[in-house]
Design brief:
The chain has 508 residues and is α/β, with parallel strands linked by helices. The protein has two domains: 278 residues, ATPase, nucleotide binding domain (Nucleotidyltransferase, domain 5); 167 residues, Nucleotidyltransferase, domain 5 (2-Layer Sandwich), CATH 3.30.420. It is built from 19 helices and 23 strands. It has a six-stranded mixed beta sheet. A five-stranded mixed beta sheet has the order 3-2-1-5-15, sandwiched between helices. The longest helix is centred in the last third of the chain and has 29 residues. The protein starts with a strand and ends with a helix.
Length: 508
């Protein structure tokens, strides 16, 4: 029997990465294509959906050409994507305007309108989240209010990755994990909410059919095959939103498993077989890519961003040394931080450079160094930044714990996850073993795994993960460090409540 292959397409904000995998999860070839984001006004962010399709076409052609694999040996395709973007198509399936993407902040008034129409409590009960400016529903209302002539012509509403699916298969479809971020899905029931759609006066026929993430949603058309080099008839599964895809790509597909990402923002993401919604709306609950299960996710707005800000503002010396040594400036900075003791000589950092999401839901709070004295050196400040970000991510984990979601181990991803020093800090602060996956393909591997499960190469998503993902040995918590950090964390936790009113005064 000839070997089978799987394709994962990961449609990000800055570019699309397409990876061809063997059935065991090893990489055959990969290709990336970038595209621009435009900001027509301050706080707005848009992209051209056809840029995504062009990127998918070029990367698919390149991985197939580089690999020499016969397209007929590809068992299935999965697509991962940036969530929350609004794609509006006319009756012929052509985009009516640029896509308003996830980081666009223009919809504050529409979010108030959604809350008023549905009711704050009811909205959380159905969609598992409060009305947020990033989500898709507010963008739909914004277009209806400000560009009625476009809304009139709209016949289909899709998410970014689902536009690429439409171009590949002709199917107007989505899947539960990405649809959870639209604020139109009944998250407990995993279907569109008739109640929310009625209250917001959105015609349900505009929305695609909702599938589970590993279900086959369509097959590659003859036209798409000619454009991409794929074989016509190749199955395309539901795929997943970026974080849900990353969860599958790191094996976080069963109770007791979680991952943390220290990228620009920080994410603590846990799988749960039991639906759990935070009534205060501090964390997101979404359908996950495993049928019949969910995930809960806390977000620290400025995780890696805090260390990047410190590097760019104060670390010219470290950058020069790193350049001379041919290494990353963060390596030099981490080495300095390791020479400061736990607690950074009684110095604390609050990582609220961009306001905060979890656990405070406060756009007005700002970054703080607390306890600064003449004895402190740069190494203390760097360590305090890393510790402050880690404490903030522990806040996320504690909210998950309040909801009954308690992981037994954590997989570390993102730039920060590559640092053994930062991983040990996570293990000690969270009192939880921290490990890394051997593959760094994350979302692309995740949706390839979904394709493997959906096309019958594997019996389930979990079985596919067990076969296709290898995990490195964990870093275990150090009992003495756990105790030392626990005392510092209590001080950290007391700072935000003490400063909350001062932040409001500063904002005004």
């Amino acid at each position: 029997m000839s070997e089978k292959y799987l394709v994962g397409i990961d449609l990000g904000t800055s570019g699309t990465k397409t990876v061809l995998f063997r059935q065991d999860g090893s990489v055959v070839s990969s290709a990336t294509a970038e595209y621009p984001m435009v900001q027509p006004q301050n706080g707005w962010a848009e992209q051209d959906p056809d840029d995504w399709w062009d990127a998918a076409v070029s990367t698919l052609n390149r991985v197939l050409t580089q690999s020499g694999v016969n397209p007929s040996e590809i068992a299935g395709i999965g697509i991962s994507g940036q969530m929350h973007g609004l794609v509006m198509l006319d009756k012929d399936g052509r985009p009516l305007r640029s896509s308003i993407i996830w980081c666009d902040q223009r919809t504050a008034a529409e979010c108030e309108e959604i809350t008023a129409r549905v009711g704050a409590q009811r909205l959380i009960e159905i969609t598992a989240n409060p009305a947020l400016t990033g989500f898709t529903a507010g963008k739909i209302l914004w277009v209806r209010k400000h560009q009625p002539e476009i809304y009139e012509k709209c016949r289909h509403i899709l998410l970014p990755k689902d536009y690429v699916r439409y171009r590949l298969t002709g199917a107007y479809a989505t899947e539960v994990s990405d649809a959870s971020g639209m604020q139109l899905l009944d998250v407990p029931k995993r279907q569109w909410s008739a109640e929310v759609l009625e209250k917001l006066e959105i015609d349900p026929s505009l929305l695609g059919k909702v599938y589970e993430s590993c279900e086959v949603t369509g097959t590659v058309t003859k036209d798409a095959a000619e454009a991409t080099g794929l074989a016509a008839g190749t199955p395309v599964v539901g795929g997943a939103g970026d974080n849900a895809a990353a969860a599958v790509g790191t094996g976080v597909v069963a109770d007791g498993r979680a991952f943390s990402t220290i990228g620009t923002s920080g994410v603590v993401f846990a799988h749960t077989d039991k639906l759990s919604i935070d009534p205060k709306g501090r964390v997101h609950t979404f359908c996950c890519a495993v049928p019949g299960a969910w995930h809960v996710m806390g977000v620290t707005q400025a995780a890696g961003l805090s260390l990047k800000w410190f590097r760019d503002t104060f670390c010219d010396g470290e950058r020069s040394v790193a350049e001379a040594m041919g290494c990353d400036p963060y390596v030099i900075m981490t080495e300095e931080a390791s020479r400061s003791p736990i607690g950074a000589n009684r110095l604390f950092y609050l990582p609220y450079l961009m306001g905060e999401r979890t656990p405070h839901l406060d756009p007005d709070c700002r970054g703080v160094f607390f306890g600064l004295s003449a004895m402190h050196t740069k190494r203390d400040l760097i360590r305090a930044v890393m510790e402050g970000v880690t404490y903030s991510m522990n806040d996320c984990l504690n909210v998950l714990g309040e909801m009954g979601v308690r992981p037994e181990r954590l997989l570390a991803c993102g730039g920060g996850g590559r640092s053994a020093f930062w991983r040990q800090m996570l293990a000690d602060v969270m009192n939880c073993p921290v490990c890394t996956a051997q593959s760094s393909e994350g979302p692309a591997l995740g949706v390839a795994i979904l394709a493997g499960a959906g096309t019958g190469l594997y019996s389930s998503v979990k079985e596919a993960c067990d076969q296709m993902i290898q995990v490195n040995a964990p870093q275990s918590p150090n009992p003495d460090s756990v105790q030392a950090y626990a005392k510092k964390y209590e001080v950290y936790r007391s700072l935000y409540p003490d400063m909350k009113e001062a932040f409001k005064r500063l904002a005004n």
